[in-house]
């Protein structure tokens, strides 16, 4: 642990800003063209917006939860890269606003149970849970609780590090809000660390339960006769793994530009690569656990979900997604050298992110069709255009965070962390 840590933020970049603006315009143009395309265009927009919201919001929450996991496990190796993950929190306010837009497509996404066939006893029995007002209320409450805890966790992490720092006009207002009623750097560092631990525990349980609940509502309920107790677990592990991959990618892209390469070395990349590899295996494990139980049970209402996805035109996308999320990182990151190479690790991170984007498509869109009725794959330029719009907004929020707040923690923040060592009495003193 260094005793002197420089104050570093991301420098502004005109090229990056222009790229974000172009991607955002492409996304907005895609939305406009789809909405002008009549009923079919509105359906395509609802599908694309829905799974892109899930992907980008889940990825952002996964990055925050990665920081939470590092804090709770006292992972001291990660001190220099935590802010790269924590910066995902900046997208959450945009995600909450975009969540409102997502509900305008509810009639397209949940038509199975919003307009059930007469005499459907299964949906009649589920009507107390599957009704739109209750669903909207519980999902918005879940989002607000999760995002509120995540933002508060980030504020606690930043508070000791911005007091007295050199400020630009864009930083001054935020620093003043964060350091209101400041008690001193060392005292605030200890106090923030203690509070972060409490919030992190609450956030860990809330993420598992509430993000899993969102998975049930936003994904599983799109095929309302089908159910799986593993689906919520898959849903929040997807976000966590995508968050790991995006963290690795952002570190590789920005660490030299920020000037922190001396603090993020091959050792950190090696550890991060091991985590990405491990959760790729875990992702395959939980998906296989869901599949194999349904396969040997042989019940028609349980098999429907897989039948819709394993047959064309979706079957090819399933194989590509599994290859991107599991097969490629398993074979490519199995040995030590690729995990230590930043460029190679970033390449695998991109492959994993593409795989999770396709997986979010597979978790949602095939449920809207009956088996055999889909002639053409509903995945193409409209979905990519909306993904570019989401990605532009995400990158804007992420880079704003990195430009506004210090990328490295202060020595006081590091000193407030428990060392993990326990002092034992000397043998002679114990006898005395």
What does this 3D model show about the protein?
- Helix 11 (231-258) runs antiparallel to helix 16 and helix 14 runs antiparallel to helix 16 (342-364).
- The protein has one domain (14-114, 125-416).
- The chain has 19 helices and no strands.
- With 432 residues, it is mostly helical.
- The radius of gyration is 23 Å and the shape is globular.
- Residues 428-432 have low confidence and may be disordered.
List keywords for this structure.
disordered C terminus; 19 helices; 432 residues; mainly alpha
What order do the helices and strands come in, and which of them pair?
Elements: H1 14-35, H2 38-72, H3 82-86, H4 92-102, H5 106-109, H6 111-114, H7 121-125, H8 132-162, H9 169-178, H10 185-218, H11 231-258, H12 266-297, H13 300-310, H14 315-332, H15 336-340, H16 342-364, H17 381-404, H18 411-415, H19 427-431
Helix pairs in contact: 1-2, 1-17, 2-4, 2-8, 2-10, 2-11, 2-16, 2-17, 4-8, 8-10, 10-11, 11-12, 11-16, 12-14, 14-16
């Amino acid at each position: 642990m260094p005793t002197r840590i420089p104050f570093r933020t991301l420098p502004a970049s005109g090229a990056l800003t222009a790229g974000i603006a172009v991607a955002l315009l492409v996304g907005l143009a895609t939305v406009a063209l789809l909405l002008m395309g009549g009923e079919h265009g509105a359906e395509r927009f609802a599908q694309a917006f829905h799974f892109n919201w899930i992907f980008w919001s889940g990825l952002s929450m996964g990055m925050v939860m990665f920081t939470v996991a590092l804090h709770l496990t006292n992972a001291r190796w990660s001190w220099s890269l935590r802010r790269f993950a924590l910066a995902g929190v900046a997208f959450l306010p945009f995600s909450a606003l975009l969540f409102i837009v997502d509900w305008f497509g509810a009639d397209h996404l949940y038509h199975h149970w919003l307009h059930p066939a007469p005499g459907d006893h299964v949906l009649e029995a589920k009507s107390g849970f599957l009704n739109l007002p209750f669903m909207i209320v519980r999902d918005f409450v879940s989002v607000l609780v999760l995002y509120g805890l995540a933002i508060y966790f980030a504020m606690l992490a930043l508070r000791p590090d911005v007091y007295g720092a050199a400020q630009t006009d864009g930083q001054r207002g935020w620093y003043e809000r964060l350091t209101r009623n400041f008690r001193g750097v060392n005292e605030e560092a200890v106090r923030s660390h203690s509070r972060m631990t409490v919030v992190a525990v609450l956030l860990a349980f809330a993420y598992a339960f509430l993000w899993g609940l969102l998975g049930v509502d936003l994904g599983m309920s799109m095929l309302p006769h089908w159910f799986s107790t593993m689906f919520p677990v898959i849903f929040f592990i997807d976000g966590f793994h995508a968050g790991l991959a995006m963290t690795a990618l952002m570190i590789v892209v920005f660490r030299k530009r920020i000037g922190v390469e001396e603090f993020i070395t091959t050792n950190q990349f090696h550890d991060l690569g091991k985590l990405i590899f491990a959760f790729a295996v875990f992702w395959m494990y939980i998906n296989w656990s869901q599949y194999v139980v349904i396969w040997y049970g042989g019940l028609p209402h349980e098999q429907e979900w897989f039948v819709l996805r394993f047959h064309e035109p979706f079957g090819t996308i399933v194989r590509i997604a599994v290859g991107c999320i599991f097969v490629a990182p398993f074979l490519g990151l199995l040995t030590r050298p690729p995990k230590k190479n930043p460029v190679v690790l970033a390449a695998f991170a991109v492959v994993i992110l593409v795989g999770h984007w396709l997986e979010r498509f597979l978790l949602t869109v095939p449920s809207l069709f009956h088996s055999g009725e889909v002639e053409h794959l509903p995945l193409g330029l409209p979905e990519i255009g909306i993904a570019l719009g989401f990605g532009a907004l995400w990158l804007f929020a992420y880079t704003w965070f990195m430009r506004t707040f210090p990328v490295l923690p202060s020595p006081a923040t590091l000193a407030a962390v428990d060392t993990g060592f326990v002092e034992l009495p000397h043998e002679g003193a114990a006898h005395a």
